[in-house]
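Sanity check. The docking grid for phenylalanine depends on where the pocket ends up, so I'm generating a full predicted complex first rather than guessing from homology. Inputs follow.
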Amino acid sequence: MREIIEKELAVLEAVTAVSNEEVEQLRIKYLGKKGLFNDLFAQFKQVPNEDKKEMGALLNKFKSSVEQKIVLLKENLDNTQHASTDKEDLTKPSNLQSLGSRHPLSIVRNEIINIFSRIGYVVAEGPEIEDDWHVFSALNFPPEHPARDMQDTFFVEERSDNNHAVLRTHTSSVQVRTMEKQQPPIRIIAPGRVFRNEAISARAHCIFHQIEGLYIDKNVSFADLKQSLLYFAKEMFGEQTEIRLRPSYFPFTEPSAEMDVSCNLCGGKGCNICKGTGWLEIMGCGMIDPNVLDASGIDSKVYSGFAFGMGIERIAMLKYDVKDLRLYFENDLRFLRQFSSAF
Ligand code: PHE
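Predicted complex below; grid placement will be based on this.
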């Protein structure tokens, strides 16, 4: 019995394993029900009493050696498995990480900012909760003008001096704030959220985004306005894009115009996006009314300027052929993921 144990201990010493099955085989061979240890234990009963102490100790040593060896083999196996999978992974592509993407409105806003920053415009910002002065009065809105009506404007707080707190209905308020604190030359682009009390539909929302542009200096003319907007249209919609200006009305600009760009879907022939006209309306613009300059502390006899304003949702709808405005605000991943490659 002694010889068997000593021989097995030596064998055990040299055992290696390359798989979990091999370790399991080893365990069964030594410690299983019909394994060597049970055999030896049966033999142990025959051992003369005077040898029992010594042989018992040897048997215990054998059992714990086997157990230790099994633990050791398992550890080694774990390590080598990690090592070999690591090695294989070096040549494999890693698991695809799903990255977030920019919201289409952010993409378009950034693109518009980039286009104007290349010709010297800087970004200006203002508060969303405004007052009547910055949204209407300073912009030459007569007191009875329908845009002040409850139907369009969200009033936040009524004030005794009539300078009520309102949610801004357009980013033109940033025009006023800039003119109040800065003398020309002024060249700003003001992106932001605006609010109008409108029923939500595919074409209208009570919250949307605008970008306002403002340029004031000496000798600024309507030709400068036209050239700047033509540059913008070509950068935004492609070199072949043409613009047309139609007379319009805004209280704060004189003369005022609506700008259309040639429909780049049908190339001007007429389709259902441009409703057969070949043109798409994208913004309002005009020369700043001298009353507005004077109201903000800029001498209208020395300076002139132009302003323009557009809805970001509208530009993004045209650019990406989005048919329903509500999609921008629902955060449906199936919609948002379509923009993941655009930056
Ligand atoms: N603020 C106008 C609007 O919300 C747009 C505009 C801006 C028109 C600047 C002219 C000049 O409709």
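Relevant for the grid: The radius of gyration is 40 Å.
Also worth noting: The mean pLDDT is 89.
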